[in-house]
What we know:
Blueprint: H1 2-20, E1 25-31, E2 42-44, E3 49-52, E4 55-59, E5 66-68, E6 76-84, E7 91-97, E8 108-113, H2 114-117, E9 119-124, E10 133-135, E11 145-152, E12 155-160, E13 163-169, E14 181-185, E15 190-201
Antiparallel strand pairs: 1-15, 2-5, 3-4, 4-15, 5-14, 6-11, 6-15, 7-8, 7-14, 8-9, 9-10, 11-12, 12-13
Amino acid sequence: MRNWRWIGVALWVxxxxxxxxxxxxxxxxxxxxxxxQLGPEWKNEGxxxxxxxxxxxxxxxxxxxLVLTKPLPPEAVIEVDMVSHSPQVDVKFRAWGDMRGAMxxxxxxxxxxxxKNTISTLAPLGEHDPRRVEKRxxxxxxxxxxxxxxxxxxxxxxxxxxxxxxxxxDAEPLDPNIYKYFSFANWLTDCEFDNLKIYAIK
Length: 202
């Protein structure tokens, strides 16, 4: 009886570890921007985007994104470092977007310190979508933030500096055959990005 009890406990612990850990991943793409120019896999929608001192820099791009033309898998992990040099912060990117038009019109939006540093949000399709989830707090200008996004089994989670920050239960997922691209985004701020990594969830 004692042996069966311990076997049951061991199985329960193994199941808990499997369920509580992050999903297994495979690295698909990385860019540390340690080059002179952007690679051919990047498409500029018409904004100010340039590599400067080993980081990706943008200023006043007015929602003309820099789009990665390599498609994202439907379930993936995205990691990136980002900083705003403007007091209003407003630093952002989009993922699982539709590249047939402007990425601003159709994607999941990930915004830190938007609306003059009052709201951070995770929103489907549009920044003002009523389904969006948000956190109302100010963030810091001149501070590099490490952002991780995990899209897995109907959930999208944004982690900020290793801590859970925003969660969105995706009850109506965007069509993965159409909405499958990543882009850096900017409106009017002076911001930088670095160390982009994209993983497929296995």
